[in-house]
Amino acid sequence: MSVARSMDPDQIGFDPARLARIDEHFGRYVDDGRLSGWQVVVTRRGEVAHSSTYGLRDRESGAPVEADTLWRIYSMTKPVTSVAAMMLWEEGRFELTDEISRWLPEFADLRVYSKGSTLKPYTVPAVEPIRVWHLLTHTAGLTYGFLQTSVVDGLYRAAGYDLYPPADVDLATASATFGELPLLFQPGTAWGYSVATDVLGRLVEVISGQSLDAFFADRIFNPLGMTDTRWWVEGDETERLAALYVPDPRSGRAVRYDSLGSLAFRKPALLSGGGGLISSAADYHRFTSLLLRGGELDGVRLLGPRTVRLMTRNHLPGGQDLGTLSTGGFAETTLDGIGFGLGFAVVDDPIPSRLPSSVGEYYWGGVASTAFWVDPAEEITALLFTQLMPSSTYPLRSQLRQLVYAALVD
């Protein structure tokens, strides 16, 4: 399945010549070697206005990016896990204010880092339990080992949790370990990008009684026809997966990164709700279309429209933005003027970021430079796929926003 343009762009408010600038601009990244290849899809009012590919999915073999190329989407898994959790919420299985220790007892007696080193940390008791909404908003006090910005990050790495978990550790074991480690801050008092969505995935497992991969398949992927989205690739499908790259520190050219990229060729022990999926443009286009349409697509409803609206409002304490509440670690977003909902960054004020966007737009991205956004005000969805780590290497996302909104002329 692929994403083909379904309507002349000028019929839905886009200038075709201006949309062509997308290919011209990002083509230069491939031509000078900074990227191996990419794929872009832009829609409006449910119609595909622009769909293009350029370059190679595997530079070394010469295989081109094609419409059905598979991409490691990493943290673009997080919105899928958030949707899964909110499907259970709609069934009355939990309330957003519930303490997660009700299902995950490892989070019952939490400690919060106060001072000291990784060898001798000093902690204090948590004054507030982690609640479900804390997981959805990254305000739980959890962190990531790969951030390398705090003592608590160091404790995660010492426990074996860096960019990837220890080999053969499953989601239940990882969640138990996270519950034993100190929190970075008191729950609900700050924002820190973290393993919170992995813990949320474990919560989905315990509440539903299914493994996360089974829940995703039965409740999301199969009903939506997302036939390409999976946790690993094998057999003939391995040829469709784009290779993973990092920038050479001297030349800036993309260099193959098989030591990490090859992990996609075997079933993971840990089903990471925070970063484990592989997908295609066509599949993720169906997912963003579902969101834009308020939780329904082609007669299949996963969420009610009011639930989607609830998820895509700013839930940060006091309506503050990430610039105020962020602990300063890595995030797949700018911070000023940006709030956070139940699984998505949310634009509260587009001016501080100096980027064209609409109030209420929501989005996220992945560490290999993939990205998406949904703009309900303009009825736009946009998708960007490539495989370059880290996502902070080039301003691909902000540049795509510039080019898309500059082409919108109605």
TrEMBL record:
InterPro entries: Beta-lactam-related (IPR001466), Beta-lactam/transpept-like (IPR012338), Diverse_Enzym_Activities (IPR050789). Its EC number is 3.-.-.-. It holds the Pfam family Beta-lactamase. Gene3D superfamilies: DD-peptidase/beta-lactamase superfamily. SUPFAM superfamilies: beta-lactamase/transpeptidase-like. The keyword Hydrolase applies. GO terms for molecular function: hydrolase activity. It comes from the Bacteria. Residues 22-399 form the Beta-lactamase-related domain. Transmembrane segments: none annotated. Keywords: Hydrolase. The keyword Hydrolase applies. PANTHER family: BETA-LACTAMASE FAMILY PROTEIN (AFU_ORTHOLOGUE AFUA_5G07500), BETA-LACTAMASE-RELATED. This is Serine hydrolase domain-containing protein. It comes from Micromonospora parva.
